[in-house]
């Protein structure tokens, strides 16, 4: 299949959002499907986006005193079953190694779906005294969850993530850690992904298996559906009791530790696609983009253009931006489509006329605005434009989010709002209402809203309202 | 168990090298054992060493045009069996997922022991034209091989590594790539690990399953045993034919690609321990060390010392070195032992007397030499000492290597040399001699020596010698 064909073959976003999404994943060369349903190949361009996220988070984790570690891929089944709530949540989704090339195993090994039990077991061995606390570990790895319905980046049988696991002497410290990490994720959205997250606490029903509290960052996709984009869990000392993670405090008393865990995944790549992308392809937030500026010479067989290329390269190099000069023999129009598809934030075009006039044309991917920039202002203008594009993208996503949070005082109003897409705020009678709403509409409670009740009666059950929730249909 | 006890408990290196090694792995907090035999926990200090190796290689890979990707953890059994030699080599060592928390799988999934077949399958889909070549990919991940005898870092059921996989239009290009990557590994030894490698080609018998040529980097451990520390394979077009990886050349002819793969693993951490370590613990090469300088105040309750700490920190910060100031309430003697155990290359001691005399004492971990450094020369002296320590460690390892390569003209001489440890060079009659030597002595051919024959007759078989090999007992 020719490249030109590839570019043209992307479905329109407004015609079929789901197909537009998967087309884009493949055709922007972010990923490819493997031979096993639900396992994807992270191609260089997709993996480079993940590496940008890793770089951002590794810096933040280090600043806040966290250390990277690596624990085993496998969990013995007996260890996995030590924490009852946790096993119930994950057991159906586990992939299990039962045999080798030579022998069947004496004990079945679960491929980690998440590593709480491995960390808990390790902590029970290395923690002795209050002097050993807090322990602030993070792990970058892949995990396996046997999901039936899969979709690139959003839900897969294997995905890449980081999982932080910490142990603390007090409840207060553990809770502060839970919220600190939620806050780092929120800033990741604001500073790197140009995505405004709604942050908040999950209801009991939506909580992580084994956690006492789950906090979440939720993003709103262009099609009006919500996407849980990361979570931070406070475990209390449930795991500590199940795994005997005890420390001697200052008075030589033996006490269980308090734990947290928190993670974001390659799902964030999906969020970026679905928040910012358009009919021409990806629109990458500039601080995240593997290529921030692409320079494309026009009539590149002309001497004047050939001579200008190293000068452009020198300017680009001086900015410290991630750039590419595409001087290949393909047509400029083909290149424009290609880099639009790949969502490169800024494109520089320069032909003989531009060089004569000592300027270049810069095109912003997000607005397609064309700006003529004098050559000697290019080095200072590019970083400014990068920031402009980031801010514009963030503000656009924020406006979309804010205009799609609606309040419902009746169940009919709720259903009507839901059809518009986005979030609907409603005060309800707890879990009973959540279950009913889900059954009737497919929407789920995304976060608890810490505000006064909107209505005293729950519009769903007719009972006394006791909690305000933000509902949405979600990925 | 108290820390003091831990430090004292390490076995002497010369008494029991194997026990010294595993003691050190645990007590320097590089790793811990998990609940599944052969799967280890990479603790923060051990993982930080691996991250230094990753940083070095990622820069080199990028300079040479390679891109990182991530392919699935699992290989369908049918795909795995497509390349006959390869499957024969790896089948006995595979771990196999056969079931999930809900259902048995229709097809068994091999947990990747290496990813040649996954890359080959992917390449068959994304390569069409000579314009798509070369493809230069690298992957950081863990792999699983069901080894019976395991030892931390050296041989495990799971280990961390990078695996490069490339595809080229010509044999020459692929061979140049194979050698280029071998050369990068060799420089990694010289520049980061302070380990001189012997590089060369493996014999047919020792070649990687499915490869046409395997090149290796081999290191000599302190106990005289060799350690294969990395490999670079030239595949020819064996995989390309088995997986139908074809491209259209400039004349529109369909041709199979030529491939390479190359990798180093966390085994390198084991090499560093066994080449440089001593009875006091690790001795880390300074460019690799997670902490390059540790500063320890003496009588740290004295005001003059308390006042000096931020000044020392300021100097350390200005050097750009990775440092730690340990102002905890433990005794200085305890701290000295701790950081010696952890192999920190430079230790700064400063007490009231030092501060009065406007100097500090710097102790080199490798030689235990104490150097008095005037305070105002500290910022310039430290980076110089870091380089000195690196060079001294490299030269020491090189001298050890060079004095342990011996030549044998008779089989008795060979056996006598072998008992001294290190390598023995001998001209032999190919594979027949290799098998005999292994049976008689346990030694294997490490590399082919590209020199004139030493003897015309093979001392092992009595037949005509046709190849010169470097033999050693190896891990």
Question: Radius of gyration of chain A over alpha carbons?
Answer: 25 Å
Greatest contact between two chains? A-B, 51 and 51 residues
CATH architecture of the largest domain in chain A: 2-Layer Sandwich
Q: How would you write the strand order of the largest sheet of chain A?
A: 3-7-8-14-11-10-9
What does this structure look like?
2 copies of one chain form a homodimer. With 475 residues, chain A is of the alpha+beta class. The first copy, chain A, has 3 domains: 3-276, Bira Bifunctional Protein, Domain 2 (BirA Bifunctional Protein, domain 2); 293-388, 3-Layer(aba) Sandwich (Rossmann fold), CATH 3.40.50.800; 405-472, Translation Initiation Factor IF3. Chain A is built from 15 helices and 23 strands. In chain A, the strands form 6 sheets. A 7-stranded mixed β-sheet of chain A has the order 3-7-8-14-11-10-9, with helices on both faces. In chain A, strands 16-15-17-18-19 form a 5-stranded mixed β-sheet, sandwiched between helices. In chain A, helix 10 crosses helix 13. The longest helix of chain A is centred in the last third of the chain and has 25 residues, at 378-402. The radius of gyration of chain A is 25 Å and the shape is globular. The two termini of chain A are 31 Å apart. Residues 1-6 of chain A have low confidence and may be disordered. At the A-B interface, strand 2, helix 3, strand 3, strand 5 and helix 6 of A face strand 2, helix 3, strand 3, strand 5 and helix 6 of B. Strand 5 (95-100) of chain A pairs antiparallel with strand 5 of chain B.
